[in-house]
Records
---
Amino acid sequence: MKRYEVLAKEIEGSILAGVLRNGDRLPSVRSTSTSRGLSASTVFQAYYLLEARGIIRARQRSGYFVNWSSRKAPPTVDAPSQPANTPISVDVCARVFAILESTRSRNVVPFGSAFPSPLLFPLARLGRSMAQSAKNFEPWDTVDYLTPGSPDLRRQIALRYLADGMQVHMDEIVITNGALEALNLCLQAVARPGDAVIVECPTFYGALQALENHGLRAIQVPTCPKGGIDLPSLEKTIQLHQPAACWLMPNFQNPLGTLMAEDKKKALVELLTRHDVPLIEDDVYAELYFGDKRPLPAKAYDTTGIVMHCSSFSKCLAPGYRIGWSAPGRYARRVAQKKLITTLTTSAPAQGGLANYLEQGGYDKHLRKLRQTLAEQQRIFSQAVGHYFPAGTRATRPEGGYFLWVELPEGVDAMHVHERALAMDISVAPGPIFSASHAFKNCIRLNFGHAWNDASERAMAALGKIVASSAPITVGAVAR
Amino acid sequence: MKRYEVLAKEIEGSILAGVLRNGDRLPSVRSTSTSRGLSASTVFQAYYLLEARGIIRARQRSGYFVNWSSRKAPPTVDAPSQPANTPISVDVCARVFAILESTRSRNVVPFGSAFPSPLLFPLARLGRSMAQSAKNFEPWDTVDYLTPGSPDLRRQIALRYLADGMQVHMDEIVITNGALEALNLCLQAVARPGDAVIVECPTFYGALQALENHGLRAIQVPTCPKGGIDLPSLEKTIQLHQPAACWLMPNFQNPLGTLMAEDKKKALVELLTRHDVPLIEDDVYAELYFGDKRPLPAKAYDTTGIVMHCSSFSKCLAPGYRIGWSAPGRYARRVAQKKLITTLTTSAPAQGGLANYLEQGGYDKHLRKLRQTLAEQQRIFSQAVGHYFPAGTRATRPEGGYFLWVELPEGVDAMHVHERALAMDISVAPGPIFSASHAFKNCIRLNFGHAWNDASERAMAALGKIVASSAPITVGAVAR
């Protein structure tokens, strides 16, 4: 890297870190030249570069000013979805696999990834807990850790429920290979092949894949980025189709990032209880809130054991450990049995290592830092979308998690954008994989869980150009 | 423990360890009294105790002699099974759960357990490998270890195939949460709900539970403790019912312990290839052979990718780690996809720890010791069954694994024996859980994978009495 590039990068870092704020005046070329021991022309080159990238702006006879938040986030996505109210068979697996496969290379800019950056997690500290736990591992632990799982780990999880004011007994908790297994086991515990299951539209493609895999049909219910699933539609659908279960994410829904209001969660559970429809609650992003307080799960409002709460440590502490759990209410025994006959139990050393980490403390401190980082990254990513994407683009501004849901100008084909971006080693998650009806053709999901850097800046600029040139009406193009 | 009990236990230990062999004369009471610094009456009491337990015998004017192998193993089980040749729906889960649940307490003598003793495994050495691997864990490993799994671990597994003369490329290998997940994924990859799948009769209850869970029907084919599945019956059944797959254990079948001859494995694979029926090969006991050489899997004879080989480290190295794998031939991609949508991937630290252990060497040395121990324990258990069980009892004498299949005298109800034994804190695995037709009503499976001790001796004596008193015609009892 040349000297002026190093300097430009440093200044950009100060801006991204909030040391230099929007409107701040940069030190003059002369003073920077002196303080850094660089030639004036090197400093000039650095400032030109930043100006060219739209990060600073020269004002005549006044010097250079930070111009970052001239980058404005795009308008928000507000409209509810409008899926047809009929059970349909699901056929998303092949498409999802093709897309996921294409985004696995480390050379690809991971906007389409489902995972946050592994650099966000205290892996060294976890490693020490693993080592400590492995050293003290007793032979009979292999038996004691059998499903439902390590008593120590289940106690730690029960304590975290308690800290949120919830009484979940450790005997209700089943440790699983991540939340994905927990969700799949819950689904199997309450639904038989051919049954219909309610999902939101759009929804996590993993839910759709699970339905497809178990021969279940999906009934899609309208949801809104602002408030979540539409309860009147939900009730109508239940009355019409007697679903075997309802699979929802009240906290920071994937892909919309929606946070359902507490009183709405309560109303949701009451509605489902009235109709005796079990709720499979996917709650893996709840710890990643940007507000003051961890949002409660719908399970907090459950009085009859109808909510099967599923979560994990994969998104907030220990990716790759595959430690998740379910607290499946009245279905706990059935879920444990499904686990026993499919994967028997969860890796004992991983259970022991996590229990050790949680007992030692430090988890909450890590979480506070993680939430701050993600909130900051969301701001940067949102503004970059606003800066580089064409007019007509909208995006969510979720209060937690690490996904932006971006609505591209009408007529832009997200699958097409995905393919063109991938050819440039940039991944995006195209909208059509998030519904059984392959809707949301002009939407993409972007992951802001990776640190912003030069590559992200270049990739977002390139993506903006792809989107702009994919809009059906451009200068010289014929309208479709 | 009293002094004479300590002495008796020591002598018993020498006998069990083979230091004192059958027919050996014990040191005289006087010389033992002198060498141990114990009173003559203490030594006498010890000898009486051992005599009362049938382990030594006094010969008039000659002293005491080891009498252990006056314990003879019972006659072997030779007859093939004769299940009906029709697909039937499976309904074993509830019964299996009830039985497994009852055998989980550590206070219960684990004859009915499915697991070998955790004390047989190098858990401390594994712990060091876990610690080392956790210390060197790189953040991006969490991504690199995603399904199909850690390249290092898959390479180590491929090397073990190679050592057996088999070419299995590491790209074919999918790491799973133990063999049970591997088997379930393979089943899902080739069979759809409603399909029929061939199993042996008797077979591992986990296979039956998997069929039940996935809504598949079982077709049971006769098998024989001496040679394994009957190939002509198998071919006839295939022609009649077009099964979606065949789930077998050619090496040390559970529960019979049968080892299929190499040329028969070859013939089996040829037959299945001819009819295009995939073989799900459960090979978890192969490393536990008592002969000279690891028996080859059926996969060794596969030329078209029709064999889905499944195994794990759970029975031979690392119980509780939940590291298994499949090498599913032409179905590798489908199996990996099923894994991605159900449990995503396998615990990264457990994968890393095992790869580290295998790279460091020492596995084969551990296995040699383990095999010796199990072979020795089989001898002791077999002889104890012969000693304590009533005439008419037969038992297998497998060349590997850690199960005895015991055929009780005709008319003895294994479920009844199970219940009465459990009331005395002794578990057995009753025959009816090993077939879809709930057959083998007078059979039990005994686990000899736990060290023989006083409690085993007492438990086996009690079990023998239960069986004897459960025979339908006993003195003073009315024939049923």
---
Amino acid sequence: MEENSSNEKSLAMNMNFPPNQDTVCVFGTGDFGRSIGNKMFQCGYSVVFGSRNPEMSGLLPKGINVLSYAEAAQKSDVIIMAIHREHYDFLTELAEELQGKILVDVSNNLKINQYPESNAEYLAQMVPRAKIVKAFNTVSAWALQSGTLDASRQVFVCGNDKESKQRVMDIGCTLGLTPVDQGTLMVAREIENYPLQLFPMWKFPLYLSAALCIFYFVYCVIREIIYPYINEKKDFSFLLAISIPNRIFPGMALNLLALVYLPGIIAAILQLYRGTKYSRFPKWLDHWMLCRKQLGLVALAFAFLHVLYTLVIPIRQYVRWKLNKRVIDQIKANKTEPFNTTSGWISDSYLALGILGFFLFVLLGITSLPSVSNMVNWREFRFVQSKLGYLTLVLCTAHTLVYGGNRFLSPSILRWYLPSVYILSLIIPCTVLVLKFILIMPCFDRPLTRIRQGWERNSKIS
Amino acid sequence: MEENSSNEKSLAMNMNFPPNQDTVCVFGTGDFGRSIGNKMFQCGYSVVFGSRNPEMSGLLPKGINVLSYAEAAQKSDVIIMAIHREHYDFLTELAEELQGKILVDVSNNLKINQYPESNAEYLAQMVPRAKIVKAFNTVSAWALQSGTLDASRQVFVCGNDKESKQRVMDIGCTLGLTPVDQGTLMVAREIENYPLQLFPMWKFPLYLSAALCIFYFVYCVIREIIYPYINEKKDFSFLLAISIPNRIFPGMALNLLALVYLPGIIAAILQLYRGTKYSRFPKWLDHWMLCRKQLGLVALAFAFLHVLYTLVIPIRQYVRWKLNKRVIDQIKANKTEPFNTTSGWISDSYLALGILGFFLFVLLGITSLPSVSNMVNWREFRFVQSKLGYLTLVLCTAHTLVYGGNRFLSPSILRWYLPSVYILSLIIPCTVLVLKFILIMPCFDRPLTRIRQGWERNSKIS
Amino acid sequence: MEENSSNEKSLAMNMNFPPNQDTVCVFGTGDFGRSIGNKMFQCGYSVVFGSRNPEMSGLLPKGINVLSYAEAAQKSDVIIMAIHREHYDFLTELAEELQGKILVDVSNNLKINQYPESNAEYLAQMVPRAKIVKAFNTVSAWALQSGTLDASRQVFVCGNDKESKQRVMDIGCTLGLTPVDQGTLMVAREIENYPLQLFPMWKFPLYLSAALCIFYFVYCVIREIIYPYINEKKDFSFLLAISIPNRIFPGMALNLLALVYLPGIIAAILQLYRGTKYSRFPKWLDHWMLCRKQLGLVALAFAFLHVLYTLVIPIRQYVRWKLNKRVIDQIKANKTEPFNTTSGWISDSYLALGILGFFLFVLLGITSLPSVSNMVNWREFRFVQSKLGYLTLVLCTAHTLVYGGNRFLSPSILRWYLPSVYILSLIIPCTVLVLKFILIMPCFDRPLTRIRQGWERNSKIS
């Protein structure tokens, strides 16, 4: 619907609207300058470009003329600075022309925190008597050009002067964007850093899971392929496609889910030990807690893959062949094995536990969608994420335990003394659950609660 | 990304920003007061605390000093009231100091609608000459403290004075929160009630489905486990894990989905009967209509579980054993049963109907996501929710009917005169569909449409 | 949660709030007028209706009185114009009464772009000395009436006068709606068109996929049902339920996914050919690019169906019968076929490829949720949509190729010289991938990048 509305708009503007009297001036005829200039022109503004040498400017739609900076500045009181920070210097000469004008800083940097102060604040120092507004830096020129604003159309706006900010936000609205007031110029730096980020919070979870994956993979290959090949000269390489991933993924999902709740437990222990909550956690713990959501979502991804890999099992040729073989052997041996209720119980219940765990897991994933988590208040959020989250962890751990079933500690499953993967993957979740269980015992829970309510064991009374 | 941005910010603020000149005063050195004070301090504000006895205040980062209320009030024109409503009395003595100041009421109550008027309005009565703004009560102190704002970072702000409201919203932005203007102080009560809610609209759907679940469960246990145990001395207890849930869940899903559309039909009948739409519905109907969305989502959850439980069937040991047994018996009897096209038709088509029904069901679920339903206008929303919704209901009902297939009314399926569950679960949906079918017949549809356009059968012309 | 909050509010307002002193006047006692009047009355406003003939107005809650237009106008400075544009004429006579008043235009039209200028602008021409605000036209009277605001509660507001706009937005907040400032009156036309749209961007994708579906369907019916019926007199009609859809859907998904990336490639070729990016694309290409998101989501829907149809295979009676038959035949022939590792490899790896492809596909779908795509910046969005998108396309294409496996070009699969569907469905994706592969070769990639950075091959230097 988004694209559409913008599309509708630009069309509507083109065809039917009386040309808007507002004139907007754009400094710089580079890519972004021209893109936003065209867009504003399409949306009914009359646009004037300011350029170092107005003669040599590239193709522009007729109706837009290019003047010198000084001339262009006089034409409008809103000036969009489509210029790189490096070239701001010339503005000092235009002090008079720019006095009281609204300068919109649209610049971005090449790396995060490139300069001591944000470009907008730097601009404010260059032209102290102008009103600086930071905006439009999160929109891509190409998107403005092609009209395909299919990513975020949010425009973060900040500035110290209310009116000018409002003025710029109105322009944003008219361009079919959704301006978001971010407050004073103080936050300009963050707004400038924003477009440079590439999933910063996802790096740690992804690297971590990649490392874990590789470890599990090698482990499985040794255990499931190399071992039988050496001992029984059997080629099980085809297990690489499904069987082995389907050993790795559930382990990953379970471990990552446990790692979501581990930092909370460490934090609790720290607070109990320190007897206060007002001293900051070590950086690594802070960071860990901040990317719990991402860890959880990666875990969910692995769980999702595990489910799919499991559900296709009966379609696999290998499985069909094995099942048929079993039947044929039975007939050849001319004996029918009776149904064993216990093993029926085990197989059914581990499936059921897995399904319920996955169901709650999906629920957690849905509630972590921004629009959903914006709907719930803190009480509800804590309820879902901690209560339901732990229930999920319990179910998934139980699922793995029951999967092991009775053949758990039978030495037969050891190959070169290596236990199967699911046993390894049980270590972390079990630890987490045990620690949590200890922490919710009154003797620890009561003081912790008081600490979290602000009580301090040794608050110095002067 | 959210956490990150806030994180980025707090860091950026700490390291690189010139200390913001704004001074903010915080009354009360309790948990919330200290948390928000620290946060603002981190974000570059200079913070002053006001306290009953400044000496005895707990640990605070250096650079923040604690004064008496009167002194602190003079330091800043924005005062955050981190004090419980019960202790507002002392403010009367500070009338002069507080005159014209912006008082930010951050208080919450212990239960919904605890006091006749909202705390903010009560504060406004206490200090008539100050500008009251309600804000920050939806943010948890713990979250501000730890910086893990992973739930909603929305801050609902309301107040009668525009400038002061804007001022407070700017502070919110700088703290990395997203202030939402909620209008005048009139809505303060609702803002204060908000954090106390725990899924209020979900209670009815969840209780209802719990009750239904239990009924179905008992019913199934009697029919599937106790009956064969008594009559044939067979232990089918392992069916509890998967088979029986997989009888209950589809029934639940179908019934709850039907209950989503029942209130609309009742409302239509009421309106036809009354001949107007301007008289309010009975409370229970109103409430029912308001939690249709939640009912639908619970139904979707059951459908989702049903799908998973169905897809694991071929992996179940019991099923594999049964299938093998059948083959072996065939061979022993040395006859191969031919393939019956009709039963092939039935089994395939009930699977297909189920899949399509579930697909549409998921579609409905997705469109009920806040961010999606915000994208669609009323016309589109009605189209999806009523047209597609009814199509879903029809498909799911058909799925169940075909599942019954020809063995529908064969007495063989009766055990102790109890029909199987899917027959019970068909009652409500069939009723709904029949009623709907009657209502869309012109003779009823035409008057109903006119009534909904505002026409009244007996609008008294004086 | 939404419904609830509004519900809470309306209740709260009714019971506990002091009647709000603000008086709002509503012109017109039609359906919408009465609905919004009641709602405002419930929310504590004192409401006055203005009507042509005050005597003959329908049922209104007591406490609301109906006056003539002139009288009503004097009662309040906010007037909601619940009147059809056709009847605006009488306003000219009220010029004095309406001077300086805030007129809220809530009107909608019957078709998109019905009038040369928007109703709000028309109103502004009629009553030049009043402040016009466009609002509330996106809310349905029925929803206001019943309180079930379960679709979007967004109210798009625009107007040239800040104060009056803010005033109207406050009213919106108090009614439990979420006003969204859309800027000046220029955008009124778009706001008026909005409620009339019915998924405009979805039309093309849906029609296209419908056409493709029908073609594939007929093709399959001929190949899978008519052919064997004529040649072998076998009735395979039951394949219509699952087998044939499960041939069509994957083909659809693959083709539509490829069609998502085709326009981008065409655009790149056009730009390379033209040597600039500043000349607009042909309309059809623009439109195609604008509905890529929708195309992709339809493709995802088909992929989802394909997955479900595939996972139920082992439950199908026909499949079970076939598998059993094979076993029985083997036994009769008294030979056990050994397991073929190669075919094991093939069957497993095409399943694995399919699963991974579907997984990435779902990921793409999730990131295209408005609330998620609002979280990511342009760099992240491009990364996901282009990098991951192409990876998905590659995986899905490989999935289909491996599915073909070795029996790919064996003439045996030709029936009446018709290859099976999956071969047809490979044409478009392979073309896209080949073209893309050519385009990312440096000789083409380098100039393209420069063009997209704003460079122009023949930028005329005057």
---
Amino acid sequence: MRFSASFLDRASQAIRRRPTISKLIVICALSSGGVLAYADAKSDHDFETSELTRKKKLVVLGTGWAGTSFLRNLDTSQYDVQVVSPRNYFLFTPLLPSVTCGTVEPRSIVEPIRKIMHKKVGGIKFWEAECYKIDPTNKKVLCCSNIWTNMDGSGEFAVDYDYLVIALGAKPNTFNTPGVVENCHFLKEIEDTQRIRRSVMNCFERASLPELSEEDRRKNLHFVIVGGGPTGVEFAAELHDFVSEDLAKLYPTVKDLVKISVIEAGDHILTMFDKRITEFAEEKFQRDGIDVKTNFRVVKVSDKAITMTSASSREISVPYGMVVWSTGIGTRPVILDFMKQVGQADRRVLATDEWLRVPNCDGVYALGDCATISQRKVMEDISAIFRVADKDDSGTLTVKEIKDVLDDICERYPQVELYLKSKQMKDFIDLFKDANSNAVKESKELNIEEFKKALADVDSRVKMLPATAQVAAQQGNYLAKCFNKMKICEENPEGPLRMRGSGRHRFHPFRYRHFGQFAPLGGEQTAAQLPGDWVSIGHSSQWLWYSVYASKQVSWRTRFLVVSDWMRRFIHGRDSSCI
Amino acid sequence: MRFSASFLDRASQAIRRRPTISKLIVICALSSGGVLAYADAKSDHDFETSELTRKKKLVVLGTGWAGTSFLRNLDTSQYDVQVVSPRNYFLFTPLLPSVTCGTVEPRSIVEPIRKIMHKKVGGIKFWEAECYKIDPTNKKVLCCSNIWTNMDGSGEFAVDYDYLVIALGAKPNTFNTPGVVENCHFLKEIEDTQRIRRSVMNCFERASLPELSEEDRRKNLHFVIVGGGPTGVEFAAELHDFVSEDLAKLYPTVKDLVKISVIEAGDHILTMFDKRITEFAEEKFQRDGIDVKTNFRVVKVSDKAITMTSASSREISVPYGMVVWSTGIGTRPVILDFMKQVGQADRRVLATDEWLRVPNCDGVYALGDCATISQRKVMEDISAIFRVADKDDSGTLTVKEIKDVLDDICERYPQVELYLKSKQMKDFIDLFKDANSNAVKESKELNIEEFKKALADVDSRVKMLPATAQVAAQQGNYLAKCFNKMKICEENPEGPLRMRGSGRHRFHPFRYRHFGQFAPLGGEQTAAQLPGDWVSIGHSSQWLWYSVYASKQVSWRTRFLVVSDWMRRFIHGRDSSCI
């Protein structure tokens, strides 16, 4: 197949190329010989490198926030990178609720992985397939293509690895409630949003058909959201806006029959946010006519009705038009199987150490929603810490000895710092003050028992990281940087002192920095909880939300599309075609 | 459900409202009492009107080009309008091939019918359902909802009509070739384009998987288009552009294995166009490496291979990755059933008269792709024409007598005018010259036999209208205008003289005006055939194509979206995510 390019094509392609190309063209105009020489030198160099040292095989499973952030920051020239994912694109998940009602279009929040990666030196190999088994014993993953039609064989293949990065994400958690998988929509993949959008429109069209009782119309226009977390609440708000701003005009005969219910098992919605935000959200929803049912637990979903219970009432069954299930995440089967193989069969979620490594599993890393960091407790290592700090082996620690290893302890056990902050202590030394209830002199020496007593409550501050895009992206970025300096840090380790060994850890452990979280509440109002417990609610936060989400887009294409989608929504409203 | 609107909402909604609202606000500021009085007077008036005269029930089946054009131009205040269609939106079909490869997004070429109609006085009722039976005897249509989930009953209902407008469109024609429905994609609905786009991407992803032979990769990247008409050719061109401009960069390892084939049963592709265009297209496709197989007929499509024959060769079977079937249109089952009821069982397509009325069927009209106008032949009515023209009953026609009825004859039988044009005659009188091979004096009189002889070949010029959006839209517009002046024209008929009756026809018969046709050939080149056999090929026609298609959009929303899609494609290319 030959390709001809017209003038316009060429112009268009030139625009799309990176700016360095234009620099090359300038150099080329000055001295084409020089450029040719440069090009030659480069390819020679590449050739030599690949011949002399075989690159280590790095396999990445998944192209979500963690996987993509890892790949974007990775120096791909150092490794033979292979990516396996059933999705050949990165999905900007925080905008999923906006897509359900057409505020933003699906294509505006996806970017092909090949496009993100195709300018990287060395490149990556991408296989659109699902990993169905991880085999750490033989260092390989078994994969199966989902698009294996019109071909012989089964579409299965194995990929060997030296390093494996597991970033497979999670699946929706149904708590084994009967009928949920069959009758509810989830809100995790781009296809979910398309199904929800079609389903909302179908409910309106169905409720508008002739020869229906008002009861049937009401039933069809009852939208139920199970789960009062950020996703469920944002979807409820989006749906309310869609109905009031767009559909009410087009379906005037049924618009007053619409009901939106949010069912939450806890006392309040948005419990992960500050109390002020929760209260504001509940009040706003009440004003908007969104029915928030707290302390209700869904026990069954049939094709016609949703059944729930509460402490104060018997089982009630409510007919519905559509249910969206958004109650948190569960572990994927392939991860559960892998956990059995690596001795984590009794855990709910795959655990890694603070360097995102899966314990007892050479070269395997896990990050994002599919794993959780199991922070080592201070009390487990207390004797080792004491031994490391006690340089002169005197059996007691001087304040100076403690100060010498303080930074390493705080880095290795971040709960120490959190504990100090929570108790409003300025210094590590204050800990011992607290324990002994009196002033500590610089000359004071502590024995192991006193040391233990002082640190006894520190581990209560160990915090699990939330399953958010922000955490996954930071983990991906962190791990990529570790991989990039793998060789350098082998010789010059940069991490804290090893407490139960000698020398230093190769890398700093992963530390999460929280930049805040948004909860869009509809009607151009957003609640924002920023670091330092700074809370902002209203239209100004909505503009902050617009700017942050536009700036966080993975490419200029999606940024252009998302912003023009917002403009389009503002001028022309949302589309209500059933497609 | 109550709706609250923030400042931004209100601003946004105000922009979307029609400008008259702002005038009302101005009046309101001047004299709020006056406005209230006006509002009261208006609703009283409405009430009286609806009480005194029951509006006739007008049922429209279908929301394609014909149905939508009819609805947009209809004075809905005169009728009780009900629309039945399985699609709640109008689809701008000429851009379907652009959507298959992501040059334009699906939502950019659809507009909800309710949105198109919601500002119309009186409004319309829309039922999202499929009409499965037309019952002209009882003047009702039977419909069935396609979205009848989670409801009791069957979702069936009947709609009574006084006037019925059938604009149901057509279905793809498979010529009963085995395996086509199961294995091929069509290109008629918006869902088809989404499936094709996903399928193209799946072929590329599948061909890129590890452990495949080159033969398997080639097979997966063989794209077959059956049918060398405008749709098939445009799709082939779009696909070629998509591959060469976007996918070649992202799939460098397999890009040279891509093959696009166009299979055409005739001697050439684009046979409905001028020979210059056909030749240019065939040459361009050859340069682009698109394999055009003319004189090949497809006899079977299995899940792995497509089988075809030609006069010169035995059956050949070619493996493929994807087949798009685009060989013309067939009649829908509901129309075939209706044809049986109205005595057209032996016809292939539903026939109407020149006023788009279904013969022997009171109040039923058919237009667009589901029907064809059966032009009355001059020779069938020759005696009646003679009798009407022969005012003095002399048994002979003078030239003056002929001239008196000439306009009516030409309007009733447009083939007469076409015949004169084709023979390069300036005047009707020349016809008689031609027949008698000598000059005709003004005083000459013709008897019936001479009259018949002169008009003998005229009916050879009867032309079937093509099944295009242009024809359907003009028919819808024409019929709406007829409906709008139904009462006026009942008293003052505007049509030509009735030949086989007395008086005049109520309306002018439908006349199609051809504004030209485009054939986009890829690489920013388009062939345009404009009225007067004016042919233009190349980049300038592409810009004409852009302007015409942008201006023909049904709403400002779709116009804005289509133009911004073109810009987005030009700057960022097409998206290759498998969604």
